[in-house]
Amino acid sequence: MKRSDHHLIQQVLDGSISPDAFADFQARMRAESELAKLYSEYALLHHTLYEEFEGQRWVDKPLSNKKESRFTIYQILAIVAVIAALSVIFVHYSIRQAHVFRSLGKATFSMDALWTVEGAHRSAGNTVSLGAGNTLHLQQGQANIALGITSIALIEGPATLTLISEKSINLREGRGRLMMRNQNAEMKITTPSLTAVALGAELGIEAQRESADELHVISRKVRTNLNNNSNVMIFSAGEAVRASGAGEIEKIPLDEKRFRKELSQFKSLLAGTLVKADWKIKYGNPLVSENGMDGENYSAFIQLPKLESSDGNSVMLATLDVGKPAKGEFHTDGWAGMSFFNKGAEMLFFGDAFGAEQTWSLDVKQRTPVITPLKPVLGSRIVTFCYRQKTGDASLHEGGIPLGKAFCSGKLPSGLEFDEIRLGASSGAALNVRSLTIRVGGDR
After folding, report:
1. Is 257 exposed, middle or buried, given 0-12, 13-18 or 19+ CB atoms closer than 10 A?
2. Per-residue pLDDT tens over the stretch 197-207
3. Nearest-CA neighbor of 374 among 350, 335, 409?
4. What are phi and psi of 44, to 5 degrees?
5. Are residues 67 and 202 in the same domain?
6. Judgement on whether residues 382 and 340 belong to the same structural domain of the protein
7. Residue 186 · residue 197 · CB < 8 Å
8. Are 174 and 224 contacting, i.e. CB atoms less than 8 angstroms apart?
9. CA 218, 220, 223 angle in degrees (round to 5)?
10. Which of 133, 183, 186, 360 is the residue whose CA sits 20 to 30 A from 170?
11. CB within 8 A of 247, min separation 6: which ones?
């Protein structure tokens, strides 16, 4: 709100504002609650003053001898003021109604999920309430979406999904499994090519940019048609179809295993607190206590448990909480941070890398330059490293879980396994680790 708004409101009350300016003023009142409140105060004051002074003479000015009309000018203005005040009440009500949010579904995300939502919604940690018209952009990970008491949709990223209503969703991109809890409930799912209407059914559906849309009927029956025609076909449990490039539906083998039934579960390899006996100090003399590990020019290693890929450990999340060192500095021309090893070879590093640039960075050790963020990320903070074994995607995220937006992203070879990690700092540098948590999970 601007200082000139006081003058603008006075023009409105005096009736000296132009029609175009008044239309702009009304639009601003609908969007700016502070302006609406100020206008209400002025209007009520305006009305009170006219009631107080109606029929009284102004100083040194006699009352007119003319016959009074049915309504004096003051009465007319008072009526206008009352109407204005009622209009403000209406505007306030409209503004409040515009902000009323009705939840139609609740999405819960896997630990490795990265997501954003278009439109008004409510977030609480790793869950978000969705309303009609909300579009969920799931960059990675999975989302379990409970739609009222009738249906659950398990969506895998990358995906873009719009909630049309409690009984209708649009999957622009991604893969999902719909599980209906009520056999009499109906749900419509649209993709760029297909429309499927399920009545108490369980199904898998996929829409990818570079391949044809698919529908897999896992239980009961589903009514289906291509979006470019209205010919309805019914497919039963055990059947699967694909929208061909020729604008036709072709049958394909059912692949139920492709569609997840639950969110990825993560387990901890290291759980926050550092225990001195677990670490092998190669050089230096860091202080290791219940408060973490702190020191200058040191190197400390710890072995990681061997994991079997079949256990569903395709995603690693390492959350490092770094504080201000008791002595020395984190940002120097040397290095300070955390490294991952495989059979004695350093595969990646994150923290403050070699060089004069002061920022958190990611070094994927693939004969590529150190990856730095567009805007420096400085000093003491919590940072989470994410590695996706299937794709080789590696990224740094500010904060812990749920993941924030990545500020550094790079590529590692896919399928890497890590057997050892290192915390430390080079000569002239210092590192204070308050806690370290490493989790693994992902596809089963």
Report:
1. exposed
2. 999 999 999 99
3. 409
4. -70, -40
5. no
6. yes
7. yes
8. no
9. 95
10. 183
11. 226, 228, 229
Nearest to 174 by CA among 152, 184, 189: 189
Question: How many domains, in total, are found in the chain?
Answer: 3
Query: How do residues 238-282 score in pLDDT, each as one tens digit?
Result: 999 999 767 789 999 999 999 999 999 999 999 888 999 999 999
240, 402 Cβ separation under 8 angstroms: no
Q: Which helix (H) or strand (E) holds 159?
A: strand 151-165
Q: Checking DSSP bridges between strand 186-190 and strand 168-180, what pairing results, if any?
A: parallel
Nearest to 349 by CA among 315, 379, 398, 383: 383
Give the domain range for residue 239: 105-258
Q: Are residues 195 and 136 in the same domain?
A: yes
SS3 183: coil
Domain boundary among 98, 116, 139: 98
The residues that bridge with 81 in the sheet, in sequence order, are: none
- Long-range pairs of 143-148 with CB within 8 A, sequence gap ≥ 24: 143/107, 143/108, 143/109, 143/110, 143/113, 143/115, 144/107, 144/108, 144/109, 144/262, 144/263, 145/105, 145/106, 145/107, 146/105, 146/106, 146/107, 146/108, 147/104, 147/105, 147/187, 148/104, 148/105
Residue 75, both tokens: 């009465």
Tell whether 180 and 294 lie within a shared domain: no
